[in-house]
Structure formats: C-alpha cells, structure tokens
Amino acid sequence: MLRNTIRNCSSKIATAIKSSPRGFAATPTETADAVVVGAAGLAVARELALRGREVLVIESAGTFGTGTSSRNSEVIHAGIYYPAKSLKARFCVRGKELLYKYCCDRGIPHKQLGKLIVATSVAEIPKLENLMRFGIANGVEDLRMMEGSDAMRMEPELQCVKALLSPSTGIVDSHSFMLSLLGEAENCKATLSYNTTVVGGHIEGDRLHLHISESKELANNIVDSPVLPQLILIPRLVINSAGLSAVPLARRFDGISRKVVPSPYYARGCYFTLSKTRTPPFNHLIYPMPEDGGIGVHVTIDLSGLVKFGPDVEWISGPDDISSFLNRFDYSVSSDRSARFYPEIRKYFRNLKDGCLEPGYSGIRAKLCGPKQPPQDFMIQGEDVHGVPGLINLFGIESPGLTSSLAIAEYIVSKL
Ligand SMILES: Cc1cc2nc3c(=O)[nH]c(=O)nc-3n(C[C@H](O)[C@H](O)[C@H](O)COP(=O)(O)OP(=O)(O)OC[C@H]3O[C@@H](n4cnc5c(N)ncnc54)[C@H](O)[C@@H]3O)c2cc1C
C-alpha cells in the first residue's frame, strides 16, 4: 500500500517539495493506525495485529531480518547476567518461557542444550558465584554449581576449575522464528512495506509525522545533505524498533528533546567457525566469564551442528544516519582476528588445533554505553519520557534481545 502510494506520488513530490517553504509542507500525507519501524519489530507487530490494530511495518531492506536479528548467536538465554529487576532480567526470563512455548506450539526448530559457564582459574570462582546469585535473584531456578571434575566428566574436552550449569539455556532457528511471526502478523492483516525508509519526522499538533522515502532514493545520498521525504505518514502509534538505527532515527524526530535521546555506541562481535571436525567437541554451550562489552568468546552450536566461537568485542564508530538506515555497517570478519581467539578459547578448550578456525560472520551490538562504562539496561521510552503521544522508542536492544522479543511485545502492548 505504502509503496504504491510512494510510487504514485513520487514524481509530483520533487516539484512540490522544491516550491514549498517548509521543505515538506506540500508532501503527500497519509494517516495510519500503528507503524512499526524495522521488520525485526515483528514480535511487536504480531502482538499489535493480534489485538486488532491495523499494523504497517516499514523496513528499509528488501526483506525482514537482515540486521542484527540474523547476526547473533541464536541462543535462548536463561536470564543470568543482568541486575535484578532490570528490564533485561525481566524480559529475558519471561521471554525465554514465551519463546520455548511459541517454538513448541508451532514446530519452530530449537533445542534446550543447556550451558556451562566456566571458571578457568581459582581467581574467577567468586565471579562465577556472583553470576549464580544474579541468576537466582532473577528467578532462574534451575542453576547448579558444579566442581570442575564433574563438569569435565560431563564434557571431556572441557578444562575448568568450577562450572555453573544452566539447564534452561538453548538455541533457536531465528529465521524460522521471524518467518512465523511475520506469517501470524500478516494473517491478522499487518502489512509490510520493504525497501522503504523512515528518514525522520516532526511533531505537528501532538502527533509525530513520519518522513518516508523509498530506500533506492537514498542510495546516492550525500552525507549530511538534507533528505526530502516522498511521503508524510501520520500514525496514531509508532514503534521505533530500528535496531542499530533507533537512536539516530529518534534524533531526526524534530521536536523531541535531545536530552532524552541517549548516545549510541556500537560494538562489533565476530564469529569463527570450527572446521576439520566431524562431531562437535561439546554437547553443551560453553561460556567463559563475561568481559567488558560482551559475555565472552563462547561456544555455540547451531541446529545443523556447526560449532561457532564468538562473538568478541570491537568498539566501532557508526556510519552517517542514512548509511545506518540502509544497514551499511562494516560486517567484515578479518581472518587476522583469529589470533586473539585461539588463546581465549584454549583457556577452556586446550585441544583446539592450530588452523582450525575459519572466519564466520559478525553482528553489531546496539549499545548505550561505551568501553569501560557500566552495562546499560534496555531503554523503552514512551510519552512519559519524551512527551510525544503514541511514540515508543526501543533503544539499546542488544543481547538478550532475541530471547526477550515476545516479552518486549507483551509489555509494550500491555502499556497501550
Ligand atoms: C553479536 C550478537 C550476538 C547476539 N546474540 C544473541 C543471543 O544469542 N540471544 C539473544 O537473545 N540475543 C542476542 N543478541 C541480541 C539480538 O540479536 C538483538 O537484540 C535483536 O536481534 C535486535 O533486534 P532489533 O529488532 O532491535 O534490530 P534489527 O534486527 O537490526 O532490526 C532492525 C531493522 O530495522 C531496519 N531499519 C533500520 N533503520 C530503519 C529506518 N530508518 N527505516 C526503516 N527500517 C529501518 C533494519 O533494516 C532492520 O531490519 C545478539 C546481538 C549481537 C550483536
């Protein structure tokens, strides 16, 4: 619908905009009920559509799930690492429960493999005990502290002095999950407009007006030059779930105080895959102690049995806004980085052979804190924070965002 509107109107728009003193006052407008920016907000779109809202999902890419939602570890987290009562803790624990049920009910491929968080030196034991306390405070009831010898009997390739077993951790096929959310949202009449970008917005009356362009119109945009929208959309509800671009996008909503929009930080995480092995060396997911910015170069096994190590943490700067909307982040994985992986992994997997790590893929964490700063919680902003009725910003949805997605959707809809 939207793309047709854009297509039908686009030729008239350029002239209209040029002659308009405000730049977009003569731009065609349309009203809408609920707009979700970014197709990875599919869980929210589905939940809204199930409640009878008329949902339009606007996605800058040619399909859903090409951003962070397809560049992660695909782990269903238990809810261990986060401070008690934080949104991350609440949504992870609730999201895990909802996600397992969702996958079971619909036959979405997943496996509850369980995970071992390992202390590889005596000095790490207090940190491990701390993690157990965090998990218990968050309502993760099945955690079990194990002696290193017991953990190594369970996993003969493992090296550790103590381990924390989390039986409820698992893995999920994230693409099948998103596809299912999409199908259910569309069954409830949600519409998706691909190759369509929200380039900014302004407040008029008390409503946020979204500025929309076809993504291809932005392809040759010169950095910092003004972007003229092809359509102004006036929704009753806007969910800004643009992932890495959520903060840059909110900054382009003219009329929202800069004070409430946090600074964005980006931390790339690269994965290496294990080659030259027929059978995975481990049956559980294996995690070392968390590090600054991440939860350590861990072992995950995907549903096809492929063993991956990662992600590491590399702080990077973001591109300009439009490049960010078009997902022009640098996702390359340099084979040189493997030199850092070998010693990290050998702390708990001594038999890792030289030359067996191959560059895999990378994902970028949408962070609200920089290097050496304390971790930040998810930030879900409504009118009470920014003063704009009907706008909900989702900022800093890093890990455990995939696990939390159904709980975030449930929370947002309950607040409306
Ligand atoms: C390395 C890594 C590992 C992770 N591992 C896990 C894990 O194991 N378990 C877990 O629970 N979580 C994990 N996460 C977190 C999880 O992947 C994210 O929380 C989740 O995918 C974020 O989804 P999102 O919708 O916020 O962002 P995205 O998936 O990036 O979606 C945002 C969408 O918005 C679109 N978009 C952007 N700007 C615009 C615009 N202006 N107009 C229109 N569309 C726009 C993009 O094209 C994109 O499709 C990991 C994250 C990373 C980086």
Fold and architecture overview:
The chain is of the alpha/beta class and 416 residues long. The chain has a domain at 2-68 and 176-261 and 377-415: 3-Layer(bba) Sandwich (FAD/NAD(P)-binding domain), CATH 3.50.50.60. The protein is 30% helix and 26% strand. It is built from twelve helices and 21 strands. The protein has helices at 2-19, 42-50, 87-106, 125-137, 148-154, 174-187, 215-218, 246-251, 321-325, 338-346, 383-386, 401-415, and strands at 29-37, 55-58, 75-76, 110-111, 115-119, 144-147, 162-166, 170-172, 191-193, 196-204, 207-214, 231-240, 253-254, 265-274, 285-287, 298-301, 307-310, 314-316, 357-367, 379-381, 391-395. The strands form four sheets. Strands 1, 2, 9, 10, 11, 12, 13, 20 and 21 form a nine-stranded mixed sheet that branches. Helix 2 runs parallel beside helix 12 and helix 3 (87-106) packs across helix 12 (401-415). Flavin-adenine dinucleotide (FAD) binds at residues 37-41, 58-61, 66-69, 72-75, 77, 197-198, 241-245, 249, 269, 311, 325, 327, 363-365, 397-403.
Mean pLDDT over the residues: 92
Bound molecules: flavin-adenine dinucleotide
Please write the CATH class name of the domain at 2-68 and 176-261 and 377-415: Alpha Beta
Rg calculated over all Cα atoms: 22 Å
Q: What name does the CATH topology of the domain at 2-68 and 176-261 and 377-415 carry?
A: FAD/NAD(P)-binding domain
Number of strands: 21
CATH architecture tag of the domain at 2-68 and 176-261 and 377-415: 3-Layer(bba) Sandwich
Q: Give the termini distance in whole angstroms.
A: 26 Å
